[in-house]
């Protein structure tokens, strides 16, 4: 079984903010697969489904970004999912806008949601799909990540979400991490 987690903050106030690209990517992927994350368990909205013949859980933690690992850890333990079968979709300020990067493991790089996931899984060895939101030029980081994209940027991000769907399909299909990195980085 695979666990795909979109990181973000719940609630209308945060719905279209840069910090919620994980939620937005996962929502669009779920829509494309004709499933809805309507079930609630362990502080997360989820759907357990089959995609291309594989068992998959799509999850949006409801604990707010900084405590995302609580839900991820609970799902991993309850459904007995190994870290190698987990993919986290996250925003990344160090990447140019809409750029995708697959990363196999490593530190949180200052991302509090990833810090929480590492703490609750007890390992850094899980796959990340990073989506660039670029670094703010003048704003404070907290103000930057909690604001919506400009209209022109939102259109560019839509393309990024579409490309990300292919990466999720490939992950579910068991494509190797190296092949994923070669194809999407």
UniProtKB/TrEMBL annotation:
It is found in: Cytoplasm. Keywords: Cytoplasm, Hydrolase, RNA-binding, tRNA-binding. It holds the Pfam family Pept_tRNA_hydro. Its EC number is 3.1.1.29. The active site is at 19 (proton acceptor). The record marks 91 as: Stabilizes the basic form of H active site to accept a proton. Hydrolyzes ribosome-free peptidyl-tRNAs (with 1 or more amino acids incorporated), which drop off the ribosome during protein synthesis, or as a result of ribosome stalling. Catalyzes the release of premature peptidyl moieties from peptidyl-tRNA molecules trapped in stalled 50S ribosomal subunits, and thus maintains levels of free tRNAs and 50S ribosomes. PANTHER family: PEPTIDYL-TRNA HYDROLASE. This is Peptidyl-tRNA hydrolase. It comes from Amylolactobacillus amylotrophicus DSM 20534.
């Amino acid at each position: 079984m695979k666990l795909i987690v979109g990181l973000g903050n719940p609630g209308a106030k945060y719905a279209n903010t840069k910090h919620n690209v994980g939620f937005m990517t996962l929502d669009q992927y779920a829509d494309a697969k004709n499933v809805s994350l309507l079930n609630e368990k362990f502080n997360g909205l989820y759907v357990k489904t089959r995609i291309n013949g594989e068992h998959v859980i799509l999850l949006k933690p409801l604990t707010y970004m900084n405590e995302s690992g609580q839900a991820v850890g609970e799902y991993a333990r309850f459904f007995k999912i190994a870290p190698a079968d987990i993919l986290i979709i996250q925003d990344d300020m160090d990447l140019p806008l809409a750029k995708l990067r697959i990363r196999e493991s490593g530190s949180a790089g200052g991302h509090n949601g990833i810090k929480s996931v590492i703490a609750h899984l007890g390992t850094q060895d899980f796959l990340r799909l990073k989506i660039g939101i670029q670094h703010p030029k003048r704003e404070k980081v907290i103000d930057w990540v909690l604001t919506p994209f400009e209209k022109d940027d939102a259109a560019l991000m839509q393309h990024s979400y579409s490309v990300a769907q292919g990466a999720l399909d490939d992950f579910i299909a068991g494509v190797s991490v190296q092949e994923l990195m070669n194809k999407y980085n």
